[in-house]
Amino acid sequence: MAVKEFTDLMRIDRSRFVVTPERLGVYRPGEHIDNPRTINPEPANPKERDADFDDWLQPDDPVLQVDHDTSMKRYIQRSVDIMVAGLESAVNAGPQSTDGLRDMGAALHILEDFFAHSNFAELSLIKLGHTRVLPWTSKANCKHPLPLVTGTFGGSDIIASLAEPLGRILFSPKDKPFEAFRAGERYERDQIIQIILGEHPEPGLLAGYEAFLEARDQWASQPFSEQVERFYAFIGTPGRLLGNAFGIAMQSLAVWLGNSVDDLQTLLNEDPNTSGSTDPS
């Protein structure tokens, strides 16, 4: 999805924008100011899957507690340290460095997440007298009775984040001008499907799709393939209209699914406004 947003930059020097394991990294709560609290951790040792993962925190770990003087969760300071280190790295690398710009973007993302992932806005409204606003936390033993907290990030949050953009890619209406398949070309939809199947526990699914892509490449290399595809595109117009209607419906369903996750979390999980917890989902 990022490739689609930065095509102009990639035309300049594609090698500077190749995704590598080091650049991609792994999910770390501190890079998003997420609450690192874990329930039923799996696997037991995350470093068995990737050495770059953070260790699971025990429920009684001090970093999960509210700091009395700042009235904030202690793990938030860890994110501040990561942000400062990223900004320093960007300054040292200079504005011409793609890695430096990447560090700056990651650092500013943490600053953005302070407002997006915390109850900062709710606490500010309550401070201004809007007492009917829910703080998304219970009171704690700290300077200000209601602490500043952030939410955890789990599997359901992944669905909320990706449902809409994936729906727009996988079920986009085919309203573009005719374009014949090109041998070796991997379109945006192909890349997304490869990523999804690459994470599936059944490796045969990815192997099957790779075989399909190889067969498509062989077809596209034939001198008559474009004429045949153009003919079928013409006679398939009625079916394409029906397919577009299906795609629009599936896009709407994906948007609805993504928007419903937070409501389901509120319904099925504990309510931090009344449960005594300072760990909202």
Automatic annotation (TrEMBL):
It holds the Pfam family Het-C. Residues 29-51 are annotated as: Disordered. InterPro entries: Het-C, VWA7. PANTHER family: NG37, VON WILLEBRAND FACTOR A DOMAIN-CONTAINING PROTEIN 7. It comes from the Bacteria. This is PhcA. It comes from Pseudomonas syringae pv. maculicola.
